[in-house]
Amino acid sequence: MMKPVNRPNLSALIVDDESAACRVLNSMLDKYCPIIDEIWVTQNPYEGLKLIQEKRPDILFLDIKMPLLSGFDFLEHLHDFNGKIVFTTAYEKFAVKAFRYNAFDYLLKPVHIEYLEQTVERISMEQIPKESDNPSLQQLIDQLTNQIDYPSSIAIHDKGGLEFVQINEISCLEGQGNYTRV
């Protein structure tokens, strides 16, 4: 039986100077991305900078062309943001530059629901701790108690060929040029 995946709830901030774009994206997130349980919206990029510091959203949906502060200028003012940046813009030409700013994704307006859902899904999957990153206590105990079969001797090249030396008889190895003194 498969274990259910516990996905963390996410929060998002939308920063876009167009009120219609804010309403549409907010509505799409609310309706099609239920894993996002908190959404903040602002048309003012300076207010967006304050909201990031106060709310610490997981995802920033950011427009690029805004009159007060472009999306790229916004990122220059942004410090200590650990969330994912998703650009939402009508301009294809800024895509390469956006990824230089570590954009997680770049969605063209009008944003397609399926692309938005895929982006949020990928972000949510990155938020889930992997078992290998966070081993259980039992896994750690098993690793510590497992007996590893190490060889009892090693082969050492000598003038006369190979000599097998018991590892428990070695007290010191010393490098001497191309040679090792045992």
Task: Describe the protein.
The chain is of the alpha/beta class and 182 residues long. Helices cover 34% and strands 25% of the residues. The protein is built from six helices and nine strands, in the order E-H-E-H-E-H-E-H-E-H-H-E-E-E-E. The chain has helices at residues 19-32, 45-55, 71-77, 95-100, 113-127, 137-145; strands spanning 10-15, 36-42, 59-62, 84-89, 105-108, 153-158, 161-166, 174-176, 179-181. The chain has a five-stranded parallel sheet with strand order 2-1-3-4-5, sandwiched between helices. Strand 3 (59-62), helix 3 and strand 4 form a beta-alpha-beta unit. It is elongated. The two termini are 54 Å apart.
What labels describe this entry?
single chain, 182 residues, alpha/beta, 9 strands, 34% helix
Percentage of helical residues? 25-40%
Structural class given helices, strands, pairing? alpha/beta
The count of β-strands is: 9
> Rg, please?
28 Å
What's the SSE pattern? EHEHEHEHEHHEEEE
Note poorly predicted spans: none
| First and last CA, distance | 54 Å
Mean pLDDT reading: 85
In short:
The chain has 182 residues and is of the alpha/beta class.
SSE arrangement:
Elements: E1 10-15, H1 19-32, E2 36-42, H2 45-55, E3 59-62, H3 71-77, E4 84-89, H4 95-100, E5 105-108, H5 113-127, H6 137-145, E6 153-158, E7 161-166, E8 174-176, E9 179-181
Parallel strand pairs: 1-2, 1-3, 3-4, 4-5
Antiparallel strand pairs: 6-7, 8-9
